[in-house]
Design brief:
3 helices; alpha+beta; disordered C terminus; 17% helix; 191 residues
């Protein structure tokens, strides 16, 4: 009997490791994630990168300014790393239909593909990542999950040639609109 339980537990672990999450599994979950709504305005994120051994390699904060024109979401991301390095990435994201997105950025190879259902978005792309004196094309498999209180949790597996290099964890928080921000936005809109 003990051997049967042990074998059953081992089989469960093996089959759980083989299963694959799909965005459709989150259909109907709340709060619903619409990235064109979530990222419109100002957002701040805090993140870390851990290598495949679980060693913390980088920490960063990113301020994001997003604009949605009804067809295209533009995200200006300004990164500040714990070591003082700065970086900017500008995403241009088009909504293809109720569930699919396509995005480009200067350091993204080809187009990023996103699929969103319920509170989840799966975002996949290849990034040209500077490593020392060379540039590696690494694959990102991002999963974003919108939580209560406008908190967006992002876990991304980073791989090359199918070998996992590490994982990025990011927490996003929409920034409140201040009176100064509102006046500035209204001034721009009035011009």
């Amino acid at each position: 009997m003990l051997l049967q339980r042990w074998f059953g537990a081992l089989l469960l672990l093996l089959t759980a490791g083989c299963s694959s999450m799909t965005p459709e599994q989150f259909d109907g979950r709340e709060p619903r994630l619409l990235i064109e709504d979530y990222f419109a305005g100002n957002t701040r994120a805090w993140g870390i990168f851990e290598d495949r051994f679980g060693t913390l390699r980088r920490e960063f904060v990113v301020d994001i300014e997003g604009t949605w024109d009804g067809e295209t979401l533009t995200l200006v991301e300004d990164f500040v790393y714990a070591d003082g390095e700065t970086q900017q990435r500008i995403w241009t994201i088009r909504k293809l239909d109720a569930h699919r997105y396509e995005g480009t950025a200067a350091d993204v190879i080809g187009a990023a593909e996103g699929v969103s259902y319920g509170n989840a978005l799966n975002w996949r792309y290849t990034l040209a990542l500077p490593i020392g004196e060379s540039v590696w094309n690494v694959r990102f498999d991002d999963w974003m999950f919108l939580q209560a209180d406008d908190v967006l949790v992002n876990r991304a597996k980073v791989s090359k040639f199918g070998i996992e290099l590490g994982e990025v964890t990011i927490f996003f928080r929409r920034m409140p609109v201040t009176a100064a921000n509102a006046a500035e936005q209204q001034g721009v809109a009035a011009e």
